[in-house]
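for the writeup, i need someone to sanity check this before i put it in the appendix. the sequnce is what the collaborator sent (i think, or maybe the updated version? ugh). structure was predicted straight from it, no edits. if anything looks off just tell me and ill rerun, i have time this weekend
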Amino acid sequence: MMWRTASLYVIGKQLNRSIYFDGNYKCFYEYKEEFRDIFENNYKIFKFMRPKKQHVKIVSFGERCCHYDSPDRLTDESAQLIKIWGNYLQSFKYLRNYKKQIRKFFAFSTQNKLKAYQFAQKLFKSQSIINQEFKICVHTRRGDFVELQQSTNKYFTEKAIIF
C-alpha cells in the first residue's frame, strides 16, 4: 500500500490533481489509521469521496506488471474526477523525480522514531560497538512471485533499492 499511495501521490502532483480514495471501501479508512499511527505526514492526503458515477471517468491505467504507464497520457483528461483502474503502479519511474517529497511523505512519527531507538538500544547493548555502524538486510520473497509471474526483474529491483 505504501508504494501505491506514493505513486498515486506523485501522479496527482504531475497532473495537478488531488487524489481521493473511494469512501465505499472500509479498508481505505483502516489504511489511513495505520498510516496516521506510523508516519507524520502522509495520512493527511487520505481524502474520501463517494462521488456519483456520472461525475467519475474510469481510466485504464497501470494494468501491466512492472511497466511504466506515463501519467502524461492523462494530462488532457477533462473529467472532473478520474478513477485510475489498474493494479500496477510498481515502476520506480513514478517516484524518481520526487525522492525528497516521498522521503518526507514517509517520515516516521516522532513517537515511532523514539520506540525504534529504544528498541535498538536494548537489542545492541550487549554487543561491543566499535564504530556504531550496523547493517540490516532486507529479504524479499521473490520466489513466491515467480510462480505467479509477478516477480520483478533485476533492473527494477536494483533501482528500487537505490531509491
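DSSP finds six helices and four strands in the chain. The longest strand covers residues 56-60.
thx in advance!!
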